[in-house]
Structures are given as structure tokens and as C-alpha cells.
Amino acid sequence: MMATSYSAKDEDGQITVSGGGGGSLRSRKPENTAFKQQRLPAWQPILTAGTVLPAFFIIGLIFIPIGIGLYVTSNNIKEFEIDYTGVDTSSPCFNCSQSFSWNSSRPCTCTIPFYLEQPYEGNVYMYYGLSNFYQNHRRYVKSRDDSQLHGDMDSLLEPSKECEPYAKHDNKPIAPCGAIANSMFNDTLELFFNDPNGTKVQIPLANTGIAWFTDKYVKFKNPGGDNANLTAVFQGTTKPVNWRKPVYELDKNTSNNGFINEDFIVWMRTAALPTFRKLYRTIKDSKMVPTLPRGNYTLEVVYNYPVRSFEGRKRMILSTISWMGGKNPFLGIAYLTVGSVCFFLGVVLLVVHHKCGNRNNSADISN
Known about the structure:
10 helices
């Protein structure tokens, strides 16, 4: 005997199908709401000459002055750069670049004289720059243990597998582990001013205040707390393979030692491009006025960081800053380009509208 079935509409207009088994099935028709039935009000702009032309001119008039201001400000920032890779035979660092490697037992020292043609006033920043160094490689970026760097004791003794093959050495955990820490920049740069009287004055370089506040006080912490004996805390661990000394001997200043050493923190913030610069030192407490007078200087480099293996280059940069940061003409050029293009398009469209509009008006009158 076949089961009977019937259908009926409920109060919302939904069709209900039921059969002899007592079950029911509602249709897939969307609910009768403005959203589901696509009856929401919509606004569609109508592009006319009266709305488009003023927008082009306004964008141009706003962006061009901003671009000029940014470009002029960037050009007013003083910057001096020295390439001390030592590729050329005439370079003072040529012998160091040829003979030095990670396995060298003695660091090599070279001296580079240079001349500043204009004085540097206010705070002056010293950067080191590397070229052809791909810190943005996926495997390289992941090769670290953030829990270890945050002071976790368990991670200190048992590093993450992400650090491989720089997690352990001679069956001891590496602290800090990973490829980023292992390749830390370790050249020593010192700056001297050659006084006209013949004396050599060393420029004081501050190695604190160069890292981001969030990195220094949030992301990086020493195991055992701030006042812990780092020599005892790091017992049972070993230094990275390419380091000359363990992490607890990076600085005599206890507030800048271990995982919270600012040179180490700056290096651990990986760069996005293969050619980059990182802040090395600041010159704030110079007894000279201006901070760096015009004259002869000497850069003394303890050549610890080899770059021949990846055909890289090393640079030292001296720079001042402004309210917009360091020297970066791109932002000003970008604003000038966009503003000029918009203003030019506004003029072209205005001419086209003037000619075509008059022609259409004449045709309408004749008809």
C-alpha cells in the first residue's frame, strides 16, 4: 500500500512536504528578508565630468606639495657610506677579505681613512650594511626558537627542531640556536677623528638604545630572570658554531648581555630584502661640536665576518635622521609621481570635456 503525501504553504510562504511516515521537508527557498532576497538599498556613483575632474585636481594639489616636502626632507639628511669588503687590491681590507674565514683563529684588523666634507649635527647613527645576504629565505627565517629566546628553561636545554642543524653541537644544546643566530654579524667598528693638531680622538659609540623597545623588553628575556648569574644559567649549553664567545659574554654590562644584548636583538629581526642595513651604534655623547665636524676620520675594522662565500659586500654608513626617519627618497618620489599623473590626467580630461562638450551642445541645438 503506497503512502500518501501532500504539500501546503505555511504563513511565511514556505512549502512543506510531508508523507505517510510523518516526516516533513522544508524547501530551500531563502527566507523572505531584505538581505537574503537582495532587496537592500544600494548606491552606485555616476561618474560625470563635474565629479571626476575635481577629484583629479584635488589629489594632484594635495600629493604634489607633500611629495616635494618629503623629497626635500630626505635630501637634507646627511649620509656617508664606506664599502670595506676588500674586494679591490687597493682596499685596506683586501688582505683580511682574502685570508679570513669562519674558522680563522685570529681576527684581522684593517684601517680605512676617509674625509667628511660637511659636519654632522645632532644625533648621528652608524649602520652596517650587507648585500646579497638573503635573510628572507623561508628556512632561514624559521630557524629559531622563540621560547628559548624568551627565557624558557626547558627550551634552553631542549631547543626546537626548527633550529636544526644548529640545535645541538657535541651533544650540547646551542644557545641561542638556529641559523639566524649562528650567522650573527660580528665585525667590530671603531671611529676616530684626526684632529688638525695631529691628535687622534676616538668617537664614543653607544651600543644601547639601538633595538626596538618591544624586542628588548617583551620578546627577548634571559633565562632565570634579570638578576640571574648567566654563567651558571647557561651551564650545559654551548655557543653557536660560528661564534667566538658564548652568549653570556657578549657585553660586560649585565643589562645588555645574554639574550637581551641589543646587537643580537637587532640581528635577529630579519630583513625583507637581500641588500639591507641594520643599526650598529649611535653617536650622542660626543664632546665635539658639531657631533662629527668636517675633517679627516679613520674607521678601524676588526674583520670577523666573511662574505666571500656568498659574494656579499659590507658597508659602514653614517647618517643623520629627520622627523620622517632616515634617508628614503622613494616616498617623496611616489607622492610626486601620483600627484603629477593625477593633475596631468585632470588637465587632459578637462580639455577633452571642453571640446566634446561644446560639440555635443552644438549638435543638440541644431536638432
